[in-house]
Specification:
about 300 residues; alpha+beta; Aminopeptidase; 2 domains; 11 helices
């Protein structure tokens, strides 16, 4: 596979990939009737399809909260060979280059995509088909997918760790915005303050946000993005800078992992390759590296 940096700099001819994408495929917009089939398809690789599975289980296949549309790709026999979410997020899972190309061609018509995310090699292939007519890259990043399974080291419990309430919203929003800015280089409180606050509030309402608050100060937080019998995927993990290095974050993560692993096979997180301290934090907490992910933040097109 060609390095993604070469593809971003147009050093590779995308036609070199198209010879592998000749099999006939058919793309359709998915509906609620497809949900069971799609979740079964995604469950074949649960630790690598957590993003789409999380959206579907939380919102359903058709929902404005997905900020995009779900599509399926079928072969000539009608068998599902790919699933993609195309909108603000571009996420996909395919079994053939033909399905990858079909989704890339479809995504070229989306004007407001914010991020393309997927496994390293899969994103490279997708980009080779997408680049000519799609949005330009704004920022490239590499993520490490870490996973934790039993056993989990037992540490002293944190009595105040709990699900967030709407009273915690004003504490959560700036912390989560800082995480988003560190990852993407865009401050959501400047770009979309109302929408960002609403998304944080909805996570609280749906029981996805965990917090530790002491004397009106947010000490720790974590967001449950996907919660399935196979995988619980966490993001937005934050520890007050004044409390880092004291063990409180590790204790909170250990406590959450034990809780989630009672009902799920694994707990996963993505960590930017630039964040060495975060990588060390998760390794110390017992997480193990399992895969590379690529993220491409996209420039918004001028309407």
């Amino acid at each position: 596979m060609y390095p993604l940096t070469n593809l971003l700099e147009n050093k590779v001819n995308p036609a070199a990939f198209r010879l592998r994408a000749s099999e006939p495929v058919f793309v359709e917009r998915l509906t609620a009737e497809d949900e069971a089939e799609v979740l079964e398809f995604l469950s074949e690789r649960p630790t690598l399809t957590f993003g789409m599975a999380g959206f579907i289980r939380r919102n359903g296949i058709v929902s404005p909260h997905n900020q995009g549309e779900f599509y399926g790709c079928r072969d000539k026999h009608g068998e599902l060979t790919g699933v993609a979410l195309i909108g603000r997020y571009i996420l996909f899972e395919t079994r053939s280059d033909g399905a990858t190309k079909a989704f890339a061609d479809l995504a070229q018509g989306c004007r407001n995509a914010h991020i393309l995310l997927g496994e390293q090699g899969e994103v490279e292939t997708f980009w080779s088909y997408y680049a000519d007519g799609g949005q330009s890259p704004r920022l490239y990043g590499r993520e490490y997918l870490f996973e934790q399974r039993w056993p989990v080291e037992v540490k002293q419990e944190v009595a105040g760790l709990r699900l967030a309430t709407m009273d915690d919203l004003d504490l959560i929003v700036p912390a989560h915005a800082q995480i988003a800015f560190d990852e993407s280089g865009i401050d959501p409180l400047q770009a979309d303050p109302k929408g960002f606050r609403e998304r944080c509030a909805r996570r609280i309402e749906m029981g996805q946000s965990w917090v530790l608050v002491e004397n009106g100060r947010l000490i720790f937080k974590a967001e449950v993005v996907t919660d399935t019998p196979e995988t619980v995927y966490l993001e937005g993990i934050w520890v007050d800078p004044l409390e880092r290095g004291k063990g409180i974050g590790s204790r909170c993560m250990s406590q959450l992992s034990r809780r989630f692993l009672l009902r799920s096979s694994s707990v996963c997180v993505l960590v930017n390759e630039r964040f060495k301290n975060a990588q060390a934090f998760y390794k110390k907490a017992g997480f193990k590296f399992i895969s590379h992910y690529d993220t491409i933040f996209l420039k918004q097109r001028v309407h």
